[in-house]
Specification:
Layout lengths: L2 E2 L46 E3 L1 H7 L4 E2 L4 E2 L3 H15 L9 E11 L16 E21 L2 E12 L12 E11 L4 E3 L5 E7 L2 H14 L2 H10 L4 E2 L1 H14 L4 H5 L8 H13 L11 E2 H12 L4 H23 L11
Antiparallel strand pairs: 1-6, 2-5, 3-4, 5-6, 6-7, 7-8, 8-9, 8-10, 11-12
Helix pairs in contact: 2-3, 5-7, 7-8, 8-9
Amino acid sequence: MYQKMETELTLKPVKSEQNAPILLKQESVVFPSRSTPKIVAKSPFIEANTEEVSLSHLKEDCIIPVFTKDNEITISHQEFIEAAYASILKVFPNEVVDKPEIRTSHLIRGRTPDALHVPAKELTEHQRTMYYERMAFIFRIPSITANINGNLLALTVGGVRAYNTENLYNKKSFEKFKFFIGFQNMVCCNMCISTDGYKDEIKVMSTSDLIIRMSNVLENYLPDQHLKDMQDLQNYHLSESQFAQIIGKSRLYNYLPKKEKLILPELLMNDGHISTIAKDYYNDESFCRQENGDINLWNMFNLFTGANKSSYIDTFLSRGVNAFDFSKGISKALSYSNSNYAWFLS
C-alpha cells in the first residue's frame, strides 16, 4: 500500500555508552536542507493563530520554564522535537527525514530583573525574555509515500506541547505530551491521523523516557491498515441532500441535550469548522462536489481535515483523529442503517 523510495539517510543516531535509548548529541542535530525526492509543502499543516519558527530560534531566543516550587527545569520544546527525531531514527533508520516544520502560539513575554522599572518601549533585546506556551511540529519522511485518488501522501511524525496543561506553580512532576504518526496529504498539507497512530497523553519525567514512549507509538502504528481505510473512503459517495443532512445534523449535535448526545458518536468539530466544510463543499479546488452534487467520503474527509487547520494547537490532533473516525463511521452508516452514525444521515 505504501512505497519506499530508496534514498540514503543523511543523519545517524548516536547511542549512549550505557545502551540507553538512542539520544542525539546536542551538536549533531543538523537537519538536511531538503531531502530527495523533493516534496514541497504548499501551506502550513496548521494555521489558526500560529506562526512558524525555527529550531534555532527556540534554542537561542527562548527561555525554558521551570517548576516554581523546586526550580526544576521542564522538558523544553526543542528537547521534545529532538527526542522525536531520535525516535524516528531508531524506528526508521534507513529513511530520509525532512527538517521539522514548527508552529507556535501564545507567546509569553517577560523581562530580566535589571529591567524592572524600564518602560516597555525602552527595553533592550537582552532585557526581554520570551517563550511559547504552545508548540506543534511535524517531520515528513518523504522516502515513504502513498497515493490515494491522485493525492500524494507522505508519512509524517509530529507532536504537540502545551505548557498550559502543566502545573508549573508546583514541584516537578510528570510532564504531558501529544504525539502521532500518520500521513500528510501533500495536495493540501492536511494531516491524516488514525487512532492507532496517536497518543493523546504521554506522561514522562525525562527525555529518555519520552524517546521510549514515542518509539513505542511508531512501532505499533499500522500504516497499511491506515492507508486501506483511507483508500476505502473513495468507494462511498454522498448525494448533495445526504451531505446537507450531515452538515445540518452536525450543527444540531453541539446543542443536543446531554443524555441524547452521550448515545451518539463523538463529533469534535464546532460551528466554525462546519461552516468552513459547507463553504469548501462548493469552493475547494481539490475536494469540492462533483457536477451532480455528489461527493465521495475521501473528499469529505479532506474537507474536515482542511477545516481542522483552523483549530488551536492543543485541540488540533484530537480533532484530526475524530475527523477520520467520523468519516469511517459515515461509511458504515451508508452500508448499515442500524449504525449509530446513521443519526447524521436521518
